[in-house]
Structure formats: structure tokens, C-alpha cells
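Run log, item B.
One chain of 311 residues. Sequence copied directly from the ordering sheet:
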Amino acid sequence: MTKIGLLMSGQGSEKVGMGNDLYQTYPQYRAVIDQASAYAKLNLPAIMNDATLLGQTRYAQPALVAMSVGINALLADADIAVAGAIGLSLGEYAALITSGQLSLAEGMPLVVQRGALMQAAIGDQAHAMAAILKPDIAQVEAACATLQAQGQQVSIANYNSPQQIVVGGTEAGVAALLTALPEMRALRLPVKGAFHTPLFEQAALNFQTALAAVDFQVGDYPVISNTTEKPFAPDSIRTTLVAQMAQPTHFATGLRQLADSGVTTLIEVGPGNALSKFARQTVPDLARFNVSNADQFETVVTSLKGESIND
């Protein structure tokens, strides 16, 4: 029997025009986006169609979370039950909202504040990130430690799958690391900030005030943290979300935990399919779907309706 796990998109997956056909086709989706806009005090449909705005962290983050939550509302309306979820970085906020651990009313202003703090932390610094394919992880970790001892700012930011990690830091730090590892295949990423590195430690500390005012609840299903590699718990969720901003993500671990819990089918929610690729590389036996447009949503409903379970 099918058991569903959700994968929630993170920053970097945003695309101009994302969700337009969903917004035009499904009143349920449109209602979520409009409500999220009101809570965020932003015109999210306009942001989703403006390349300049969508390219800014403070606007991309609430837009992505709203889209994921809206798609989940469609899945719930179609009686597609969910047994667990993980999100990549920002995607954890969408997962916490859809699981009921965080309300949309409190979650959207929180994401707006997070995006603003992270954008401010980038400032005029020359940040850089690079994906390393088929890495020797121990060798990369050792090289980072050596460079850090020399005063360079570079570290592993994302453990995405056995076949991909991402490193981040200052431009000088990342360049030095890639020079030190010439035998490894690396791809520079078009990002504004070196997310999940110590460069965001002050932003994380500044985020504590916003988190302190939020009321977190026990959810309908577990959401596995990229940071602790365990399900979020109401008594420690604030500490975890602060740490998340400046510590590496462990998405591959979350995928394995979903598989170990009995999840048989993954649905990637939001624009793009990067998370499905990580799933294929990490838990290849699990079935995979993507929902970023109306056609994909209809495919999921046709394939899964009536088959999913919650336990």
C-alpha cells in the first residue's frame, strides 16, 4: 500500500511564472496564495512573475513557501494523505506549516523576516557556493578544515545525496577549496549567499527574537530536520530553526529516514525537480512524483488517490 512522503522545495528552485496555471485553475490553491499574501503583506502572485523581485532572497522565500503550501492544500483536498515530510532548508517552513506544527498566519511573517535577515547578511560580501559531484566527502571535509585553519571561510553547506554535496563561503574561500581539489568535478552555483555556513551566524542570532513570539504545535505527521537529522519537536523547534541558518543541511539523511519509516512514494512539491534527483540517488527504490503545475497535479491524483495511508 502506498505511503506518501512530501519533499518541499528550497530557495534556488524559484522560476518566473511559477504556479500561474495552478492559481488560474484551482480555487483552493488561489485561496492559499491570496491568504499567504495577506499574512506576508506582499503581493505574492506579482512577485512570482517578476524576475527582479524573485531574484531577491527576501521575496523568493515567502513566494516559495506559499506555493508549496498551496499545492499541499490541493493534495489534501484530493484525499492524498501524508505520512511524513522533509524540506530542503527553506522548504522546512512549508513542511512545518502543512503538517500543522506552524500556522500559515504566523509562518508567513516569520519567513518574510527570515528572508530579510538573510538578504541583509549577504550585503556586499562576495559569497560563493559550488556543487561537488561524486565527492570524496571525507577529503572535502579535511580540505575545508585545513583552509579554515589558514583563515579561509569555506565549509560544506549541503549534504544532498551520496552523489552531491555543496560547499559555500567567501569567494576566496571557495576558490581556494576548488583549487585544492582539482580532481573533483565542481559546478559553481548562481546564488547570492553562502547559505548554511558560518557567514549567517549573526543573522541566525537576530532571528531568535522573531521565533520567540511564534506558537509551535504538535503536527499531524513528522517533519525531519535537515539540521538535527531527527523529527522536529515543539520544545526544541526554535533552537533548531536558529541553528539551521548557519549549519549544513543533511537532506540525504532525511530521505533515508522517510524510507526507513515505511514511506513508499515521494511527492516533490514546488518548482523544479532537484529534490527528486537527490531521492533517486539516495533512495532509488521509492516512487517519485513532482507537482509544480496543473498537469503534474492531475497525474498525481490519478495515480495515487485512494491509495495513500497515514500510518
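Observations after the first pass:
- The first strand starts at residue 2 and ends at 8.
- The chain has two domains: 2-122+199-309, 127-192.
Flagged for discussion on Thursday.
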